[in-house]
Amino acid sequence: DLTGLTTTIEGDTTFALDSATGSCGGAGSGDVVYSFTIPAGMSHKMTATVTPATATPNFRPKLYLRSVCASADAADQVSCADTSVVVNALDEGTYFLIVDGDSGSYGAFSLTVTLEDPFYLNDTCADAYVLTAGVPHSGDTRLGADDYGNLTFPTVCDGPLTGTQDGPELVYAFTPTLSGIFTIDIDDQYDSSVWVSPVCAATSGDPEAACIAAEDDS
Question: Are 146 and 162 within 8 A, CB to CB?
Fold first, then answer.
């Protein structure tokens, strides 16, 4: 499991079986597989670099990233290269990083994986995370941006939320299947606020008309 911001591990394909081949090569060489998971609602820039050990200078590595481990389908291969794979925006999900060899080569290596600049995909209305009624979801506004802090909420908004809310936020969307009372329960560790509108107030230009409910837990 490579989950983390930067991970370096030592490996060896010398006694590995030839179980995979990437579009950039790897046929006839043993390979080893590593996995990591990007949490729901997040995205990372990923850089993976494999460096042959000095004891096995003839090892010519191939490195490829897949979304499905056992699949050779091109649609399931994210990237394939000789020694370094870079993906600028790797979305949520489990991925498989495979260290292979070129034309039967094998040997020891070090593998460094960096997951940079975590950010939540639902930082704006355009990328709102779709909620399912009754299904809990976790988030972290520290990884968001203050996109809508300049909005001024009037007293007519149904709730105590007034004035500007200067702080990073995350945006969620849901579509009711019937009319009735909907409860939004936030379990937080800071002074949070929440507002609900049928449109994104930041794009409507009229937050007074857009806001239909709000709450401040302070």
Answer: no
**Region of poorest pLDDT, from 31-35, 47-51, 173-177, 199-203:** 199-203
Residues 6+ positions from 126 with CB-CB distance below 8 Å: none
Question: Which residues on neighbouring strands pair with residue 84, listed in sequence order?
Answer: 49
> Which pair of tokens denotes residue 131?
């909620």
Question: Does a structural domain hold residue 1?
Answer: no
Alpha carbon of 61 to those of 1, 12, 21, 36: distances in Å? 21, 11, 12, 20
Domain that residue 24 falls in? 6-118
* Statement to judge: residues 111 and 165 lie in one domain: no
Give Cα 29 to chain centroid, integer Å: 31
For the record, the structure tokens of 62 come out as: 């191939």
Domain boundary at 118, 148, 172, which? 118
Per-residue pLDDT tens for 76-127? 999 999 999 998 788 889 999 999 999 899 999 999 999 887 667 788 888 8
Q: Are strands 108-120 and 6-12 parallel, antiparallel or unpaired?
A: antiparallel
List, in sequence order, every beta strand (DSSP E) within the chain: 6-12, 32-52, 61-66, 77-81, 84-101, 108-120, 129-130, 152-153, 163-164, 172-173, 193-196, 213-216
